[in-house]
Amino acid sequence: MIFNIKRLLGAVAILMVTASAFSQCTSCLPDYTCVANGYPVLCPQLLPDGTTGIVYETTATFNMPGTVTDPGSGVEASLESVTITSITGLPYGLTLTPSNPDGVYYPAAGENFGCATICGTPLAAGQYFVNINVTVVASAFGFSQTVNESFSLPLTILQGAGGGNASFSTSETTGCAPLTVDVTNTITGPGVSYTWDFGGPSSGTSLAFDILTDDYPGETTWLITDETGGIVMSGGPYALGQTLYSEIICVGPGNYTLSVNDSYGDGMQYGGVIGNYVLTDGAGVILAEIVAGGNFGAQGLHPFTIAPSSAPGGCILTTSNPTIVYDTPGTYNLSLTTTVTELTLIGLNITTLAGGWDGDVEEFFWGAPDPFFVMGGDASYTSDWVGDVETPNFTGLSIPLNYGGMYSFSFYDEDDVSANDFLGTANFVASAPGEYTINGGGTTAILSIIETVSAEFVDTEVIIVFESLDVWADIDGDGYGDLSMPVNGCDPMNTTPYAFNSEDCNDADALMFPGGAGTFSGIDNDCNSLVEGDELMAVEGCMDVASCNFNAEANVDDGSCEYVSCAGCTDPLAINYNPTATLADGSCEYTVCLGDFNNDGVVTVSDLLELLSSFGCTSNCANDLTGDNLVTVADLLQILSVFGLDCP
Fold first, then answer.
1. Nearest 5 degrees, angle CA 58-CA 64-CA 68?
2. Strand 583-584 with 567-568, pairing
3. Model pTM score
4. Helices and strands per DSSP (H, E), number in the chain
């Protein structure tokens, strides 16, 4: 029974990937408004475009029903589990974090919702195709089926307007000869290689690797990695036995590791024939060599260091983070091509199958094994079984491998009734493309591995090296030089501090330079040929015009302002009017005279009109004369009774 799992899962596969591969984004929460009408659904259906040089972060939700119906056959199947085995092709600079750290989901058990965060800063524009490999366990009519599928989903990265150098940074871009430039790679890791062009000078030491193959050259590979995990050089497998192969590479100072791998696991020796290898630097010093007898097992590791003082130089670097010395004045184009590659297992051919599969009831009736393999270590994969073939060839695989990754391949005979027969396990270290023979427990297989370029970045930085540098003395250290004192900034004997301009008006005073702030010192701080404003000599005093001691000549407020000596009643109608007071302090007092609302000392028509203006007031009445908080006829009669009265 075959379920079309690819048709059922399609859009959601991009969102589920093992956390061991991608784990740098923030966590996410599913959007529970994402509705699945009987089939898995992705919300949103399209990932938003990204732009180079701009931080990208998006969250997507997937909803997988526990039961789906294959639209082709009409068969209803339960999605028992969905496991994401690998993902490749994600734009460089982006990572993905799923809601489940192990990348395994169980829809039939009610785990229908999940989400993923995609984040980072994309480095290169283009139309990318993200390749996802999944293993699905589905069941129908009481039977379970494991299916491996691959998907390719598009993601567009647009070119940003800013440009810039995405792959390396430099400590200096200009300076005097000899100019030392430290370069730092920003794209690092396994599968990353560098090709430098410094525009003229070279800086590095040559490494020579000589390897004499044994009688099984197809089992031998090697690689040299730097301290970031980047591959400096690799080689093998080889075609000819008992043959000397030599490689030369240029590296800079740093820490490195030589890894020599044997896919069979017995080193470079068998039947009395022993291979050999030795690694030497440009001075002939031995940095690494094979163990005595040649049996280093599956892998021989040799860490070594190239010290700056011991590097003979004279070659073009291919390593990361180089240091270049430009001895000759001129303009140089420092360029770097960064290549990012991936290893992919595309085939496994069993050439010899171990015994032990033919004692089961299944083989009694059908007479042939049904082999399959299970991959472990740095990747998880279970193949389909191939029926009635003792030496099957598993083609069409697309399993990403890590450079230097350790993998195991366990072989089985699939049996429907009895337990599956175990037919051996072989171990393998991935290092380079090629065909490799592995063996374990009597089963021998050939692995087919390819290497593809997933991204390539070419960046350039202009380095300008001066023979002489026209600068000006900056004795006072204010960043502005003295026009009358030119200095050669590249003169190694020069001890005079200098600036790259000659705009200072007084190089003996660090407080005088173009745009300088006034210091109330009577000097031209801003070099505009005028002494003005805050450059005038300081006159301290009170600068608040509302104070009692305001000083119109003061240009520096000394905090002496006081507001007491001139405070008092400033209203001439008040009985305590103070003609010398300039600051009203609310202390005015007035004679109380019934009906004299305007306080002019006489009850007149103006006071009567004031009362009539509030006639009918029923609360908070200021013109109430009777004390009942109302302005009525009673109040009118009261004011008429004192009309024309002179107040005492």
1. 150
2. parallel
3. 0.55
4. 4, 41
Query: Model confidence over 531-572: pLDDT tens digits?
Result: 888 888 888 999 999 899 999 988 889 999 999 999 999 888
Rounded-to-integer distance, Cα 88 and Cα 569, Å: 87
Per-residue DSSP letter, 109: G
Q: Are 635 and 624 in contact (CB under 8 A)?
A: yes
Q: How far apart are CA 496 and CA 488, in angstroms?
A: 10
State the amino acid at position 183 in one-letter form.
V
Which pLDDT tens digit goes with each residue over 325-362?
A: 888 899 999 999 988 888 999 999 999 999 888 766 55
Burial of 416 (0-12, 13-18, 19+ CB in 10 A): exposed
| Tokens at 596, concatenated | 């004299």
The identity of residue 326, as a single letter, is Y
CA gap 573, 138 in Å, rounded: 102
Beta pairing partners, 221: 261
Check if the beta carbon of residue 637 is closer than 8 Å to that of residue 606: no
250's tokens: 């240029």
Give the integer Cα–Cα distance in Å for 30 and 64.
12
- The label of the residue with tokens 């109302």 reads 630
Whole-number Å distance between alpha carbons of 133 and 392: 22
- CA-based torsion, 524, 528, 533, 534: positive or negative: negative
Residues near 575 by beta carbon (within 8 Å), at least 6 away in sequence: 589, 590, 591
Q: Cα–Cα distance between 260 and 300 in angstroms, integer?
A: 5
Q: What are the phi and psi torsion angles at 358 (to 5°)?
A: -100, 15
Q: Are 392 and 353 in contact (CB under 8 A)?
A: no
CA 454 to chain CA centroid, Å, is 19
Domains of the chain by start residue, with CATH: 5-158 (2.60.40), 168-341 (no CATH), 342-451 (2.60.40.150), 594-648 (1.10.1330.10)
Taking phi over 0 as left and psi of -120 to 50 as alpha, with beta for the rest, 35 belongs to: beta
pLDDT at 75: 77
Length of the chain (residues)? 648
* Residues 611/617/622/624 CA torsion (nearest 10 deg): 70
Q: Which amino acid is at 332?
A: Y
Start-end of H helices in 380-514: none
User: How far is the C-alpha of 499 from the C-alpha of 502, rounded, in Å?
Assistant: 7
Tokens of 604: 């007149």
Instruction: Give CA–CA dist 416/642, Å, rounded.
Output: 124
